[in-house]
Design brief:
heterodimer; A: alpha/beta; Rossmann fold; 2 domains; five-stranded mixed β-sheet; 54% helix; elongated; B: MetI-like fold; 12 helices; 0% strand; ABC_transporter-like_ATP-bd (chain A); ATP binding (chain A); transport (chain A); membrane (chain A)
């Protein structure tokens, strides 16, 4: 139902549905709508251009183009619906059965499927025509087989995933028979993508009908089909250039309508798409702030997603040089958004709407991205929660480690690689030189996080923002990575903003803490004070919930 | 890498065998060539004699065995009608088909990939919406209709190109190539729409990936992120689309041949369909299926080159 109401809010889809309705009406009511008999020959009025008598002109036998076009909708719709209908009847049940039972049958069936799908649909149609004789129905049979095979593949793939889900187990426990599970339980759950694909295949089928008729393998010479009209126009375009225009437009618009409806259905089922990132920060209302001696000074920072919630509201804090400052709160409290806002890396459409962020006295908000980019690395470093996703899967570690060295220090490739190996050794990756040539998937989570830390430290940042740096790691590795961070802080003289939901970590490593809840800071205190005498009831609740974290 | 190629090559023969079974069944079962060759007037004795001569009187398995044996020796038989060896007629027709497919594919990539990147970088802007609209229209446009319109405009109206009349390669490579420009453009623009669409989607996806944010967090310049990292990651889906498009172009080129009256593989196969010339049809479909299998092999190897996880460890 949500899908339908979403669909009804897509103007393009509505226009396409209306167009298809028009085609259906044209096909059904062709004898009443067509101004002339589509096969009435008129030798004196042949190859005319569009006129009042013949809106779309006449062909080489003087037949009215508009009437032929209207009758052509019958062939077009019949061919598409036949081809896709048959494909659904053949492909979907086969895919359900093969996917559900799997095993040996699956392996054999998929090999055959691979073999048949290496014959393009057009050639399979040729083969079927050779076998069964000419005619549109036979020709579309070959196309249908290819559609069926693709639907089989799609269905099987989805069933393989579905049959592992709890509802299928539940149905088995309830004693439902296999056919009832397949058709009653699984099919409704995989129907969405099948409907989308069918709509797109209806368009493809139209293209194939046109191609086959154009090649003279489709309809009989007497019948009017758009593809056949195009075929006949070839010989006469020199005399009447309008001839190929309208049948082609009819084909294109029909295919377009099916495609757009498919797209609309997909969007309606999946919901809105996330927008791509933008490099241009939207305007910010800067809040005037008095100078402080802190390294990082944040005032009244507010982050909002247009049309949605304000995720960070009026956040202010200072971090002194050399301090380890903790920002704690449960997930969704705005910690990460705060961190991303500081570095100018908010995911669009999220944006800082007001506030002030000063690093060593310099205002960061409102800086153009290329100026911020120059600060990211030597001034601000950042570590993310999931180290694997912070590394490009198709590039070597070495290639990714030397990025900041080449950008900020202007090192040559060779020098940068030497330095990268040193950094890797420093963060505790054994056999660093050789590992520079490895790809991220060859590293464990803990090792990958060390790589990401090495990259963040490469340009020697004054402030390191570590966003849940240990959350995605095994418990045993968590301590090692934290110890490494503290060790590096002393070595590099860094200031650290540590974002975490783990109060135990805070107690261990932080000097001061701010507690965030629902986008606001509810309490800010030195670590000792916060743990012994929490002022805000939420902090107390958080402490109570984490139980023995302090010990 | 060598391991990957080897494993794919090992999988090739069983695949080709299965393909040949499918093609054989498709074109042989239930087909009686004598009706076509001798006409309706021939006596049953004459038919039986011809069937025996062609080997159609034997059990299917035997027929398949001898046909496969022939194919292995590089002999696809001779045409029922022209009596020409099929291998040599295919060899004569294939180059022009391959030239059209190659030209079309190159054009499709050259136009589609930059257009897709452009759209992804300006997602939601007027330019992006315009590119999306043009690609949607391109996807829906029948390739042969575009070919017809191109011919109408550039050859019939402007007279920049010869209307019909194909120049054989041997008679002048320059004119041969000139005659293939419009067919390649018609094929390429259609596929360009598909590739642009795939590229735009893949780039929009990779530009949202966490590693892009992580690269920005160390100050990597935008240009390098887009072209060296995001594009490189987006190339796997782009390759999938391109591989698929090569196969589509191969089939659509058969139709486009008819527009420009180019005597390519498609015309040969189409004539065989019309005349029910079974050996030529068989040979043609086997050739195309083998080309498709090889294209898929190339795409698989491409995955290995692009994605380290696709390489056997």
């Amino acid at each position: 139902m949500i899908t339908v109401s979403r669909l009804l809010r897509q103007p393009a889809t509505l226009v396409c549905l209306a167009f298809l309705l028009l085609l259906v009406v044209a096909a059904v009511a062709a004898p009443w709508l067509a101004p002339y008999d589509p096969s009435a020959v008129n030798v004196t009025g042949r190859l005319e251009g569009p006129s009042a008598a013949h809106w779309l002109g006449t062909d080489e036998l003087g037949r009215d183009q508009l009437s032929r076009l209207i009758y052509g909708t019958r062939i077009a719709l019949r061919a598409s619906v036949q081809a896709v209908g048959l494909a659904l009847v053949l492909g979907v049940p086969a895919g359900l059965v093969i996917g559900y039972f799997g095993g040996w049958w699956d392996r054999v069936a998929m090999r055959v499927v691979d073999a048949v799908s290496s014959i393009p649909a057009l050639l399979l149609a040729f083969g079927v025509i050779a076998l069964l004789g000419r005619g549109l129905t036979n020709a579309m049979l070959g196309v249908s087989v290819i559609f069926a095979i693709q639907l089989l593949r799609l269905t099987r793939g989805m069933v393989l995933a579905e049959r592992e889900l709890p509802y299928v187990d539940a149905a088995r426990v309830l004693g439902l028979s296999a056919p009832r599970i397949m058709f009653g339980q699984i099919l409704p759950n995989v129907a969405g993508p099948l409907i989308v694909q069918s709509s797109i295949y209806l368009g493809f089928a139209q293209l194939f009908e046109a191609m086959l008729s154009f090649l003279g393998l489709g309809v009989d010479v007497g019948d009017a089909s758009w593809g056949q009209m195009l075929d006949r126009s070839r010989a006469y375009v020199g005399d009447q250039p309008w001839l190929p225009v309208f049948p082609g437009l009819a084909i294109m618009l029909t295919v377009l309508a099916f495609n757009l409806i498919g797209d609309g259905l997909r969007d309606a089922m999946s919901g809105a798409r996330a927008p791509a990132p933008t490099w241009k920060p939207p305007p910010v209302r800067l809040v005037p702030a008095e100078p402080t001696r802190a390294l990082l000074s944040v005032r009244s920072l507010t982050v909002a997603f247009p049309g949605a919630a304000t995720v960070v509201e009026d956040v202010s804090f200072d971090i002194a040089e050399g301090e380890v400052f903790g920002l704690v709160g449960e997930s969704g409290s705005g910690k990460t958004m705060t961190a991303l806002a500081l570095a100018g890396l908010l995911p669009p459409p999220g944006a800082v709407t007001q506030g002030s962020v000063r690093l060593a006295g310099r205002e960061l908000l409102g800086l153009p991205d290329h100026e911020l980019a120059a600060l990211r690395g030597p001034e601000i470093g950042m570590i993310f929660q999931d180290p694997q996703s912070a590394l490009s899967p198709v590039h070597t570690i070495g290639r990714q480690l030397i990025e900041p060295l080449r950008t900020h220090e202007g090192l040559s490739r060779r020098a940068a690689l030497d330095r990268a190996a040193e950094l890797l050794t420093l963060v505790g990756v054994p056999d660093a030189r050789r590992r520079l040539g490895d790809h991220p998937h060859q590293f464990s989570g803990g090792m990958a996080q060390r790589v990401v830390i090495a990259r963040a430290l490469a340009a020697g940042p004054r402030l390191l923002i570590a966003d849940e740096p240990t959350t995605a790691l095994d418990v045993t590795v968590q301590c090692q990575v934290l110890d490494l961070l503290l060790d590096l802080r002393e070595r590099f003289g860094m200031t650290i903003l540590l974002i975490t939901h783990d109060l135990g970590v805070v107690a261990d490593v932080c000097d001061r803490v701010a507690v965030m809840r629902a986008g606001r800071i509810v309490e800010q205190a030195p670590v000792g004070g916060l743990f012994t005498t929490p002022e805000h009831p939420y902090t107390a609740a958080l402490l109570a919930a984490s139980g023995g974290a302090h010990a | 890498m060598r391991k990957l190629i080897l494993s794919r090559l090992v999988a090739l023969p069983p695949m080709l065998l299965l393909v040949s079974v499918v093609v054989f069944l498709l074109t042989r079962v239930g087909v009686d060539p004598t009706r076509q060759m001798l006409g309706e007037g021939a006596s049953e004795a004459q038919r039986a004699a011809l069937r025996q001569q062609l080997g159609y009187d034997q059990p299917l398995v035997v027929q398949f065995g001898s046909w496969l044996g022939q194919v292995f020796r590089g002999d696809l038989g001779t045409s029922f009608f022209t009596q020409q060896p099929i291998v040599s007629s295919l060899a004569e027709r294939l180059p022009v088909t391959l030239a059209m497919v190659a030209g079309g594919t190159l054009l499709a990539i050259a136009v589609g990939v930059p257009a897709g990147i452009w759209g992804a970088l300006r997602a939601g802007s007027a330019i992006d919406r315009m590119i999306t609209a043009v690609t949607s229209a391109g996807l829906a446009m029948p390739g042969f209709w575009l070919a017809l319109l191109l011919m109408l405009f550039f050859a019939v109206e402007l007279r920049w190109f010869p209307v019909l009349g194909f120049t054989r390669f041997a008679d002048g490579p320059g004119m041969w190539a000139y005659g293939l420009v419009l067919p390649c453009v018609a094929l390429g623009l259609h596929s360009a729409a598909v590739i642009a669409r795939q590229t735009r989607g893949a780039m929009a996806e990779t530009l949202r990936a966490p590693y892009v944010r992580a690269l920005r967090a160390v100050g990597t310049p935008r240009r390098r992120i887009v072209y060296r990292y995001a594009l490189r990651n987006a190339m796997v889906p782009i390759l999938t689309a391109a591989g698929h498009e090569v196969v589509v172009l191969l089939a659509v080129s058969f139709v486009v041949e008819r527009v420009f009256a180019i005597p390519g593989t498609g015309t040969l196969i189409l004539d065989a369909v019309v005349r029910n010339d079974v050996p030529v049809l068989q040979g043609g479909i086997v050739l195309v299926a083998c080309l498709v299998v090889l294209i898929n092999l190339a795409v698989d190897v491409g995955y290995g080159l692009l994605d380290p996880k696709a390489r056997p460890q």
